[in-house]
What we know:
The protein is of the alpha+beta class. The protein folds into two domains: about 5-100, Nuclear Transport Factor 2, Chain: A (Roll); about 110-240, Glutaredoxin, CATH 3.40.30.10. Helices cover about 45% and strands about 20% of the residues. It has helices at about 5-40, 90-105, 135-140, 140-145, 165-175, 180-185, 200-210, 235-240; strands at about 45-50, 55-60, 65-70, 75, 80-85, 85-90, 115, 120-130, 150-155, 220, 225-230.
Amino acid sequence: MNIKSLVVVLGVFASLLGAASVSAGEVEDRIAQSLTKAVPGLKVMSVRKSEAKGLYEVQSNNGDTIYATEDGQYLMTGDLLKVTEQGIANVTEVARADARKATMTEFGDDGVISFPAKNEKAVVSVFTDIDCPYCRKLHDEVPQLNEYGITVNYYAFPRSGPNTASFRKYESVWCAGNQQAAMDAAKAGRKVDEANCENPVQEQYQLGGRVGVTGTPAIVLEDGNMVRGYVPAKRLAEGLGLL
């Protein structure tokens, strides 16, 4: 084959690749449009092929994962499991963790109320409600977590929502001159002076919804996995491989 013929063949091959990529994009767009139209208020964050042939994985704005057929007419909710040599793997949870990690990284940790470990080995992001009993129980163990080398970064998630007493209480804690002392007092049930300032409580509350927080405490690990509910400090440190 001469050089001229080779160039023609490569050009045709490139055109075919371009057409294929456009087709793939059209499939994903069609699924997104179909879901958005069918479910009012749903915002599709991403659509991609799943590990299961014929299914596409859809990430929504509320942290849910949905599976759809290529034509977008058939949907499946719930976890997609895969049989491996090691046993059963939860494909959906891996996808959730990846998406959660990306969302948390994009949001960043500006505005968190942090209780840093002096010899930091791990960082956990905790969505917390000041009035939640198990959140208070977890907070009692923050010094122990710090001793294990775990930094605790608090994100606001007052479960009662905006314009409630619990929400305003978190704003007062955030606006206090000493946030850590105010958090300690509030978690212990002591009164915190009301304070107002520009604050990120609303944005953090919305972030919680995006990463799938449904209750508190919700502990997001650095790899994006979420521990739902209270876990004793020692068990959390063991789970992180620190003990």
